[in-house]
Amino acid sequence: MAELIRLDNISKSFGEQEVLDELSLTVYENEFVTLLGPSGCGKTTTLRIIGGFETPDKGRVYFDGQDITDLPPNQRHLNTVFQNYALFPHMNVGENIAFGLKVSGKSDQYIKDKVKYALNLVNLKGFENRQITELSGGQQQRIAMARAIVNEPRVLLLDEPLGALDLKLRQEMQYELVRLKKELGITFIYVTHDQEEALTMSDKVVVMNNGYIQQEGTPEQIYNEPENAFVADFIGDSNIVPGRMIKDKLVEIKGTEFPCIDGSAEGFEPGQPVDVVIRPEDIEIRPYGEGLFNGEIISKIFIGVHYEMLVKSEKGNFEWLLQNYDEHHVGQKIGMYVRPENIQIMKKPEFDDEKAMELDL
Amino acid sequence: MKKALSSIYIIIIMLFLYLPIFALMVLSFNEAKSMAVFTGFSLNWYVELFNSRLIMYAVVNTFTIAIISATVATIIGTAAVVGLDAMRPKTQNVILAANNIPMLNADIVTGISLMLFFLILRVPQGYMTILFAHITFSIPYVVLSVRPRMNRKTDRLFEAAMDLGASRKYAFRKVVLPELRPGILSGFLLAFTMSVDDFIITYFTKGAGINTISTIIYSQVKIGIRPSLFALSTIIFVVAFVALLIVNIKSKKQEVELVL
Does A88 sit within 8 Å of B159, measured CB to CB? Predict the structure, then answer.
């Protein structure tokens, strides 16, 4: 895959507040990249720097090998779908979609065909003469997409485009976006704080916090092998526990020893303090005394597909989050087992910023 | 019972508001010059009004000054709002505070200080000084009414237009200006009414030999007001009333259309 956009050591501050700190990121052609993080992590600023709406204090932006850092947004070959859509309220749907084409001086016939094509693409055939105010949120979202893609950009930037929609519509639009991306064959850079959106749609997820990239990888990598406690906590529900390596492939957590698959080969030395992530669905329930450790169920709720339980361990007095398809009762004493490959060992954070994050876990 | 009381209350308020105006309208059609007794219907005072060069001159002055000053103030005020938008929030707040002071300031202070200003600069007082004064006191009202339209949403729309390839000028003309339009329109109307209404500032900056409606009424009060001015007031009231009626009916219609 060819490199399309490269951010090189980007730093940006607003007044005293440092938003991005020497961020570097490469986006390849035809990739669906998601910038994921809590609000204030710098993801939107990164997108706005790529779009040309902010100028970085330091660092360069390259597009297809060319330095575009100082190029205004109207000269960049990319289009944006804005948060809350930013549709022009005094123009109808057709005029909104035609705006970019009109600016670039296309012929009336070309514009007409192209608007029709774009409306077809977003499943809103025949909407040309509707007013923006007559549209539902989901329809406005589609028009915003159509307005951006008629210009045939090489990259589409999407700033939390589904944030204002309800859950059902959001899930529908996720499939739509993936379909559109396939049909158009262009690069998508997507910003969201919703981890589910990031995992379902992306080829590559970039997890950000405090202006740093915490981890970059496929959705599977991000979910199964979080590199630090922040990523583990932000992506899905997790038990994040401090532990200590006993020896190669054996880790001690809250007084219990767990066999695992990480060891000195991954740079974890005996005696080293580490963070351990165990996903709640990976803790298997066994009869009392037959697992690696025992505990008592202290709460239980049913959340659709499975039950979610809190179990207090006998050793270490730690409350574990468990998910299980079978119903168990509060007060029941159970044994628990975790497969070695489901124990994810992480280094303790190195940055001060991350340490601050760890405290409010 | 409660309902009857509340209707009586409304009726009393309406009477207080409109009875004086009604009295004025009735007296404008009076045959005699009396301010108390209605002796018979006539259009004499309307004839006198239109034949009085002094009054007609004042009417022309009032409305040309209102139109010109409102137009200039609207342009300057709108430009100020656009400029403000690009400033840092701290600077914006300082300038907006400075913008609010002239509105809170007593007219008499503004009037006297403008008069002194013209005297010091040896500007002969007349039509131009009134115009200048009206532009000055209208700008803050325009800023106040356009400013709320220039918000984050407008900024986003501007960015969206740029994103679609528009130049700054084109994006401003096609996207930002239409967003500001309602504010610009109400700012213009506000400036226009303020100008027509103004007496104090006009009085201090007008110099001799020139009058607007408000100053001519004032000067006539001293020598005994003539019913031809009742006639003028009646015409102004009716015009304003009809204009308001049209605007309201129109917006009501639009509302209905939106609901449908």
Answer: no
H or E stretch covering B224:
none
Where exactly are the structural domains of chain A?
3-224, 229-359
Residue written as token pair 């509105």: B103
Q: What is the DSSP string of A286-344?
A: ESTTSSSEEEEEEEEEE-SSSEEEEEEESSTT-EEEEEESS---TT-EEEEEE-GGG-E
Q: Is B1 a residue whose pLDDT tops 90?
A: no
Query: In this structure, what are the phi and psi dihedrals at residue A273, rounded to the nearest 5 degrees?
Result: -75, 140
Q: Delineate the domains of chain B, giving CATH numbers in brackets.
A: 1-42+226-260 (no CATH), 54-225 (1.10.3720.10)
Chain A with chain B: Cβ pairs closer than 8 A: 58
CA gap A250, A263 in Å, rounded: 8
User: How far is residue A79's CA from residue B247's CA, in Å, rounded to a whole number?
Assistant: 41
Q: Pick from B156, B163, B174: which is nearest to A73 by CB?
A: B163
- H or E stretch covering B119: helix B107-120
Residue B260: its pLDDT value, please?
55
Cα angle value A98/A101/A107 (rounded, 5°): 100
Q: What is the pLDDT of residues B67-84, one digit of tens each?
A: 999 999 999 999 999 999
**CATH code, A3-224:** 3.40.50.300
pLDDT in tens, B188-233: 999 999 999 999 999 999 988 899 999 988 888 888 888 888 899 9
Q: Considering only CB atoms, which residues of chain B are within 8 Å of chain A?
A: 153, 156-157, 159-167, 170, 174-175, 178-179, 258
**Mean pLDDT for all residues in chain A:** 89
Q: Confidence class of residue A164 from pLDDT cuts 50, 70 and 90?
A: confident
Judged on CB neighbours under 10 Å (0-12, 13-18, 19+), A77 is: middle
Taking 70 as the threshold, does the pLDDT of residue A148 lie above it? yes
Residue B187 CA to residue B140 CA, distance in Å, equals 9
Which residue would you say has higher pLDDT here, A163 or B14?
B14
CB-CB neighbours of B93 under 10 Å? 12
- CA B155 to chain CA centroid, Å, is 30
Q: What spatial distance separates the first Cα and last Cα of chain A, rounded to whole Å? A: 38
pLDDT above 90 covers what percent of chain B?
61
Backbone phi, then psi, for A147, in 5-degree steps? Answer: -60, -35
Can you read off the two tokens belonging to residue B31? Answer: 């045959």
DSSP A191: E
* Interchain pair B163, A79: CB under 8 A: yes
Q: What pLDDT score was predicted for residue A171?
A: 86
Residue A14: its H or E element: strand A3-14
Nearest to A243 by CA among A173, A303, A315: A315
Sign of CA dihedral A304, A310, A311, A315: positive
Chain A residue nearest residue B89, CA to CA: A15
Would you say domain A229-359 falls under CATH 3.30.70.330?
no
Residue of B161, B163, B175 lying closest to A51 (CB–CB): B163
Residue whose entry in the numeric block shows the structure tokens 């297809």: A64
C-alpha pair distances (Å), A193 with each of A31, A237, A303: 19, 15, 22
pLDDT band at residue A358, thresholds of 50, 70 and 90? Answer: very low
ipTM attached to this prediction = 0.80
Enumerate the residues of chain B whose CB falls inside 8 A of the CB of residue A51: 163
Radius of gyration of chain B from its Cα atoms, rounded to whole angstroms:
23
For residue B197, how many other CB atoms are within 10 A of its CB?
12
